[in-house]
């Protein structure tokens, strides 16, 4: 099993450190890869839809296996439902948009859109939250205790 997480935008040292932490813990269940893409251009000077379209084109080239987009309007899942989702496919790419979100056309092409929260999260907070939920999902699906 290979899980990929694509993020758009810079990843701060604290989020990179969290990735390294969770990567070690997740490695006993699955290989996990992170692909950080730059934003589509200057957020303050260019049209938002043009930027999101550029980002979507970059993202599309990196998708492997099933694609799951993280979007505020996506389906809300319990941790148990997320664990079931993880175990239902060998290769999955999770997509976390940048400051402007994910282009509508790309969202429609994703096999599934899920929401981590009804609140807007920065791409870095969404990234770390997703990593924690992936780890939790593997623990749940194997009947292991989460806290140790």
Description:
This protein has about 150 residues and is of the alpha/beta class. The model has no long low-confidence stretch (mean pLDDT about 95). α3 (about 80-85) links the parallel β3 (about 65-75) and β4. The chain contains five helices and five strands. It starts with a strand and ends in a 7-residue tail after the last helix. The chain has a five-stranded parallel β-sheet. The chain has a single domain (about 1-140), classed as Alpha/beta knot, CATH 3.40.1280. The radius of gyration is 15 Å and the shape is globular.
Concise overview:
The chain is of the alpha/beta class and 148 residues long.
Blueprint (SSEs and pairs):
Layout lengths: L1 E7 L4 H14 L4 E7 L10 H13 L5 E11 L2 H8 L4 E6 L7 H6 L2 E4 L7 H19 L7
Parallel strand pairs: 1-2, 1-4, 3-4, 3-5
Which strands sit side by side, in order, in the main sheet?
Answer: 2-1-4-3-5
| Weakly predicted, low-confidence segments | none
Total strands = 5
pLDDT averaged residue by residue: 93
Instruction: Quote the beta fraction.
Output: 15-25%
Task: Report the CATH C-level class.
Answer: Alpha Beta
As an assembly, this protein is single chain
The separation of the N and C termini measures 25 Å
Features:
about 150 residues; alpha/beta; Alpha/beta knot
């Amino acid at each position: 099993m290979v899980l990929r997480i694509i993020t758009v935008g810079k990843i701060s040292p604290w989020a990179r450190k969290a990735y390294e932490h969770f990567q070690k813990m997740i490695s006993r269940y699955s290989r996990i890869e992170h692909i950080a893409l730059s934003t589509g251009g200057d957020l303050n000077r260019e049209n938002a839809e043009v930027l999101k379209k550029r980002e979507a084109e970059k993202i599309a080239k990196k998708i492997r296996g099933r694609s799951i987009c993280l979007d505020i309007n996506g389906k809300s899942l319990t941790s148990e439902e997320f664990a079931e989702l993880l175990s239902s496919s060998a290769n999955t790419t999770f997509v976390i948009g940048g400051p402007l979100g994910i282009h509508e056309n790309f969202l429609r092409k994703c096999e599934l859109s899920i929401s981590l929260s009804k609140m807007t999260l920065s791409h870095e907070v969404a990234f770390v939250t997703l990593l924690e939920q992936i780890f939790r999902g593997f623990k749940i699906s194997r009947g292991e205790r989460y806290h140790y």
